[in-house]
Give the backbone structure.
Amino acid sequence: MNSLLDHLVVLPILLPLVAGALMLMFDDRQRVAKAFINVFATGLLLVISIMMVVQAANPTDLLAASYPIGNWPVPFGIVLVADRLSAMMVLLTSVLGISALVYSLARWHAAGPNFHTLFQFLLMGLNGAFLTGDIFNLFVFFEVMLAASYGLALHGLGLARIKAGLHYVAVNLGASFLFLIGAALIYGVTGTLNMADLAAKVATIPELDRGLLEAGAAILGLAFLLKAGMWPLGFWLPTTYAAASAPVAAVFAIMTKVGVYAVLRLSTLAFGVEAGASAGLGQTVLQVGGMATIAFGAVGVLASQTTARLAGYCVLVSSGTLLAAIGMGNAFITGGALYYLVVSTLAISAFFLIVELLERIRIAGADVLAITLEAYGDDEEDNENDEIGMAIPGALAMLGICFALCVLLIAGLPPLAGFLGKFAIISAIFNPHGLTEAATITPAAWWLAVLMIFSGFAALVALTRTGISTFWATMSDHPAPVRVIEIAPILLLIGLTVVMTVMAGPVMDYMYVMAEILQSPAIEIGNILATPLVGEVLP
Amino acid sequence: MELVLAIGIGVLTSCGVFLMLRPRTFQVIIGLSLLSYAVNLFIFSMGRLKVGAAPVTASGTIDPTQFADPVPQALVLTAIVIGFAMTALFLVVLLAARGVTGTDHVDGREQR
């Protein structure tokens, strides 16, 4: 263990940290240099995360690659874990990162100070949150991510952003305190913060302390669910996402997935089948809450007055579907949900980018049905034509096609991957033990299936309405041109979902193996606890 | 000692939550600060309360009950720093909101 590859797991955290710190040395006037460093670092991150996924998908090495930070032995030091799930999430982060970054280079990166630095720190926090195997370290990376996101949410300023940002910061500060209380309670009962060590100890907790442990886990879960936007904790989300600038909102699409990821990780690891009396803690809450989120999100999608807000509610629907599916606690459903997670994140991210381009071609206020425009403070942008890059011809047709593909993905219609993801979940709900074994269908399964189909229908209605009022309406006479570097990231994101549709077999296999490992965590727990130190020769 | 600490945490938390639910941004930030004090004390108390015990264990065969738990102390230090930084950040947003909207109401406009 002495090549750079052994330290692969820590690189997605170190690289953005170094790049972000480096960019602090530059004045904001040297924007080209900063942009160059940022693109280079994010591109390198993409390569690293592809290597991580390849390593994690290696059939001889199904289990996690764990890395002890500072070479402290597990469970006393902090351990980073790159199993299939975290490697996939890191890859998803860097894909969203590079596309949002390229998009921002057209004009948004110049709209305020320190965009590039904050962007790298956001990536660092996201990657750290996905990779860490320690609860308190997870808190620290959450805060790194949030601190950067506060700055980015306000990027470009303007009344709407400041008003939304104030709520966003206050709500997330409150959530951070819940996180701390939960982590402290868990430490107080089990005496450990390492997730694998915690999982090994949960079953042996004395009966008297179990209530305290479960309370701690519930409070911790509350903090995650607030990030994931579960009803009724997600009220802040559509406003904030709609107010954020387009590339920022595109990266924020994965921030709710951090909450979903943390719930999935901790609920399967610490409260899975091996947790004794605590097994399956909170599953009912996840199911009911997830379904309520889908319903709330679907109604919100129908009722939205602006397209950006509509996209915010699509995020909620996606979160709710994932939470309810995770709450079912079944490997098949989880596998389908993980596929859906990737597809819906890519689609929503692309949609956030498209929304801004749509605003350029339509007459201001065309989609406002009843409420006056100033209620949203949607007035701070001006379409100056001094940006870099060349405009593409046939922009309208291109935008229309991208928009239609996004509608298919978000509403979950065939032939694209959005349909496959939803189909995989619904099929697994009705056949929880596989297609060969008969099973009774629970009422919860019926409800979830109905809600998922309803939410898809609601998204279809609302998005079609948006499409009609945008593309088939009177347009502004001189729409600002759409540039190659603006449309290319959207094509990349949508193209990836097309690849996922064509390659659905191998991708699904990856997801199912991942879900299988998640649902029976005993081997992974042992593997993490036996993490060798770097430089140590295994017996 | 346990009772005093518990009452202290309880009073700080209840005041913090009350202030956080008030409509003025200044009240919210004071509420958040009080909450962070309460949470920090709470984390500290999770290492069990001990008086006059050394925080770091010596090497060799030792009796762990003779020492104070060092982990919550490290956690609380991190939590203080992060909480402080976040409160400062919130203060900046608060001032920006006050400057742009002209009111210190959390919704950016006075209730009618």
